[in-house]
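Structure tokens please, single chain.
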Amino acid sequence: MASMKLGSKTDGFHRDGNTWYCTTGLPSDVTIEVGEMTFNLHKFPLLSRSGLLEKLIEELSIEDGSVSVLKLNDMPAGSKAFELIARFCYGIKIEMTSLNVVSLRCAAEYLRMTEDYGEGNLIVQAEAFLDEVFGSWTDSIKALETCEEVLPYAEEIHIVPRCIDSLAMKACADPNVFNLPVAGQPDAPSQRDVILWNGISSSANKPQPISEDWWFQDVSFLNLPLYKRLILAVESRGMKPETISASLIYYAKRYLPLMSRQSSFDHANNGNPWATVSIPSETDQRVLLEEIVTLLPKKRGVTSPEFLIMLLRTAMVLHASPLCRENLEKKAGAQLDQAVLVDLLIPNMGYSVETLYDIDCAQRMLDHFMSLNQDAALSTPPCIVEEGQFLGGPDTLQPLTMVASLVDGFLAEVAPDVNLKPSKFESLASTIPDYARPLDDGVYHAIDVYLKGSCNMLGL
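Here you go.
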């Protein structure tokens, strides 16, 4: 982690409970209250570095020489930041790191610690250190996370967008080409790991190529608003939609327990990489899911129907907005030819549960698929089947035939449900044109299962 030490003195402060004292030997002539903490200090070191403190001290000057009391209720990062700043004003050594530079920079802005109040003042030094932080992926991530503590101030002085731009640039670069420092990756080989072969230097243990998902875990620790801004930033820089979709899937599975195949309460499995992640409230999960849906790339085929339907199931449980669920149905329906039977078996979660599986949802996805493939269906004349094979270029009908097989399998699966009305069964079966089925065995089998179930119900 990057760090910078400021100041020269090594001592000077003593804490007693919630009170800080400067141990210079001189009596304190100003008291600063920051939250529950009290600092007994001296006017001159403070006003010589801070425009705000100079102004406030002048306003509170008392002729009889009694101690002035100042309240800094709006201090960014509170007493923790002010303690470091007080030390800085006294010339005492402080260490600036990627974890405190944002709060120090915001506090310095609040206190107006410009070059008008001493050369090498805190604003300039914090800015110089931020430039170093933005050069490192790991330090930029840490700095961005700390922005949450002082968000309004960090936004005002443009630290947040600079952090995000730094991260987006690195995420879009090829880490194998630019040798970016990636969390969890081994350090660069040391000198003793280098061997010579025919006079050419090479590494004895060559590092493995870094995959495109190297940054997913790091950014998944960001809260939703910051993560969303980062995704929009990498998208604007031209990142492949497949990579963006994969990051969204990673983020969603981290914070939406229902997206996991195992129980949301089963964190005992050692194989669960997010066992220590606290589960957000249902309201927060709903907001997160709806945002994820808006961020999904629009390009067809980028996000698998399996994940889209998993999102849809979760959206139903969390009572996401109708618009959100409709968008997911359309996205999944658009690539229904890539789905498998288990994807369509969505448990019915309506208020008036009639059937075990959500037949209406399956019908809407199928209708959307047919509306997108209507031109192909209409342009292909019937009666083009001979011995189960299409004549005259089957490519245009291949998605239809795949969906026909999927629907026939779905019908056979739901046919035993005694509550499945004939009209719904017929509607699903007839949505697919007859000529899209090379063979009718699937639909006949589904009809047979349905009729047997009806007869059993009637005792026939």
